Amino acid sequence: MTQPTETIGRMKRSPDHEDEILDVRGHLDPDRNRLTPVVQLPPETALTVVDALSGLVRAAHREEGERPTPAGEPKRAQVFEEGDVFMLEPPFPGFFADRYLMDFYDTAARDICSRMHLHTGLRFVRMMTGPDTTIRVSSLSPITVRPPTGRFAPLSCFADDLPGTPDGVRRERHNVIVPPNSWVDMQIPRGVSHQFNAVGPNAVIDSVHPEESIETLREGMSGYRMMAQTIFLAKDRSPAATCADTGAPETTPPR
Asked: In this structure, are residues 129 and 20 in contact, taking their beta carbons and an 8 Å threshold?
């Protein structure tokens, strides 16, 4: 078996390839993701926030369908594996970062999970859930769960086997469950594996890419797409059953 090696600093072989695959047997995370529980809200409040933000994404996609972005301009309504996306704040000269909102797909409704992947630049994401919805956050390395900023129920943290690996290959997957009506922040270092899957209809991400446009220029892309910095660690997506389990709560999540 190939011994995993750190892939920090790795660039894509083809900057315009939207489905570039890295053999999971050879990947070793150079760091850990860090997750901070922020706040838990009353169900009606959480739903109002999630609906308002996801509504911006849906409106942007309707507008893109009616008035497509001209060639050569950044396309603000895009599609990720985990959900539909709206580039809320594009980068500009002197500010090399962008910000997006993502309206999560319901994994259970689609019967499909997004794939484990990494980015060539670091990320910051705020995940927000409403009623009857959880988000399963996963990585190939243990996720550091920081102390909550306020009162927050213990999170469910557990490990299982990553699905879809090559025959005879086992990679452990580490999981944290974002409960309903909650906000959590996640810091994703450059090159560290991660996977998001929402189970339920009410979930959204507010994400910042501090290095996105720098990476874009360095790679010499022919067009600006947020997906362009993603490298997947699996060729195919797996059924919803492989990411729907929420595990058993632990009183001492990894730190």
From this structure: no
Which segments in the chain show pLDDT lower than 70?
A: 1-10, 212-228, 247-255
Q: What is the pLDDT of residues 44-98, one digit of tens each?
A: 999 999 999 999 999 999 999 999 988 777 788 988 889 999 999 887 777 778 8
Q: What is the DSSP letter of 30?
A: S
- Thinking of the domain 34-147+156-242, which architecture would CATH place it in? Sandwich (2.60)
Q: How far apart are CA 152 and CA 40, in angstroms?
A: 6
Overall pTM surpassing 0.90 (yes/no): no
Residue ranges in the chain assigned as alpha helix (H)? 43-66, 107-110, 212-219
Cα distance between residue 240 and residue 127, in whole Å? 20
Q: Which of 171, 220, 229, 226 is nearest to 9 (CA)?
A: 229
Q: Is the dihedral of CA 102, 42, 198, 10 positive or negative?
A: positive
- The backbone torsions φ and ψ at residue 242, rounded to the nearest 5 degrees and listed phi first, read -80, -5
Q: How far apart are CA 185 and CA 147, in angstroms?
A: 12
Lookup: tokens for 24: 């999971």
Per-domain residue ranges of the chain: 34-147+156-242
CA dihedral of 196, 200, 203, 209, whole degrees rounded to 10: 20
